Amino acid sequence: MAVEAGRTLKTARAVLRVLSLLEQAPAGLSAADIAEHLGRSASTAGNLLNTLCAEGYAVRDERTACYYAVYRPAPAPPTTADAIDLAVLDELYGRTGERAYLATVEDDRVVVQDTRGRQGLPTVPGLRPTIRSEAHALAVGKAVLAHRGADAVRAYHDAHGLRAFTSRTITDLDALERDLVGVRERGAAGDDEEYAEGFSCLAAPLHGPDGVLVGALALSLPARRYPEHRERLVADLTRLAEAAFGSLSAVPTEPSSPPPPAPGPEPEAART
């Protein structure tokens, strides 16, 4: 039989009423107190209290026979990384025509969470979703290292070394630290065939509203286009990274210059 719209359960209302009474009585209430408030029998009050105790919403003090509400904190708000509006990734791809990446910082690694790019757009060969020992050779890794402090950079060096992925990879700690100073000054990191020959990348750090580093926004493109388009791409990238936690309406709708042609199928979202 269908339930009538608006019908409520008296028992459910009674349980919620008991919980409300307990929350308003930090010194506790006995079953007799609850029965008096509800105008019910002591056995009914006891059953309602037992239900709350069984579900973890109340506890009984065996010494005093009083019941107390259990403090249950409100659900935690989304983490700063979760608060990133993925529309910023669509906007970055739409403005640049290059493959776009969103990565987050997770302990000692950088994790690529999502990408945008049309089918057939070249991807960086060998790039894995989880970036650890290759961070120094990738723009997205440098964007994170540059803002984690000198101690974190040295700890990274001690843990992973500075492996050469190509002849352009920075393998000297002093040289890497100088490069990271430039990243902080420019607001964006770059790698020009430092991880994979024929590919260049750019990345800008993502800082939450509280200023905490949570990840990076990045682009990859064929190295032959890098010198010509780098300045424009950095401008778009840094503006959108700053808007990642807010409204995109504050960001100019027109790119600084037309992006390279992007023929082919419609853009698709794809996990690296």
Write structural notes for this entry.
- By secondary structure, this protein is an alpha+beta fold.
- It folds into two domains: about 10-70, Arc Repressor Mutant, subunit A; about 85-270, Beta-Lactamase (2-Layer Sandwich), CATH 3.30.450.40.
- The protein has helices spanning about 10-25, 30-40, 40-55, 85-95, 140-145, 150-160, 175-185, 225-240; strands at about 60, 65-70, 100-105, 110-120, 130, 190, 200-205, 215-220, 265-270.
- Strands 3, 4, 5, 6, 7, 8 and 9 form a seven-stranded antiparallel sheet that branches. It has a two-stranded antiparallel ribbon with strand order 1-2.
- Strand 1 and strand 2 (about 65-70) form a beta hairpin.
- Helix 2 (about 30-40) packs across helix 3 (about 40-55) and helix 4 runs antiparallel to helix 8 (about 225-240).
- It is elongated and about 85 Å long.
- The two termini are about 50 Å apart.
Task: List key phrases describing it.
272 residues, disordered C terminus, Arc Repressor Mutant, subunit A, disordered N terminus, 35% helix, alpha+beta, two-stranded antiparallel ribbon
